[in-house]
Amino acid sequence: MNGLERFERTSFSALHWTRDVYRAGSGPGVLVMHEVPGLHPRVIEFGQRLVDAGFSVAMPDLLGVAGRTATPLYNVGSMLRACIAREFAVLASHRASPITEWLRVLGRALHAEAGGPGIGAVGMCLTGNFALALMVDEHLLAPVLSQPSLPFPLGRARKAALHIAPEQLEQVKARARAGACVLGLRFTGDPLVPAERFATLRRELGDAFEAIEIDSKRGNPHGIARTAHSVLAFDLVDEPGHPTREALERVIAFFDARLRQGS
Fold it and tell me: Which CATH superfamily groups domain 4-260?
């Protein structure tokens, strides 16, 4: 059992793609976009936490085998497939991956079904900055960027880049000036999510960007590994007072505030 049995498997077609989407829960809609290697049990567990917190959760299956446990070999294989798949543009600094257009349509459908003032979205790792690109739609009220890893930080420019087209970024900035907020999560020692990327988000979005940066340097007080990457899944330590647990609680509170009150 991997937890996926609690979700209803549906199919969603739009543009050039058809993907399975796993649905459960009721209440405001939240789109959960999984990390590498795919919709693995720890991401499913995160989705279930949102269901238990009173949200209608949609988890699209974008890569890998849904429900399969992550292993080093599986991780590498999925990453290689992402690098060559036309849905993703892993080195693009100033444009979003093509699959974000399909995700925008899915988000509209989720909002129409769930109702309320709008929806939330969580991107993780490969999909981390997707939530930023989805902000061009005004119904996305609560975007969460968890360890946003695209573009892969090869070279100085890509370390600071946001994987979004300039015209989309201008729309996001306009929404930020109008009161929209963005939540970002990273471990401080994560080479896939360099500090320069969060510095760009702070510069572009100002006070509308809330950063949660968890200390993972050598000798940190919580013993977090320097290799820590996955804030809400692999590297989540579900213990009171642990910074990853506090990050999870902040994400849920962010959804509560933005989606239930529409603030």
Answer: Alpha/Beta hydrolase fold, catalytic domain (3.40.50.1820)
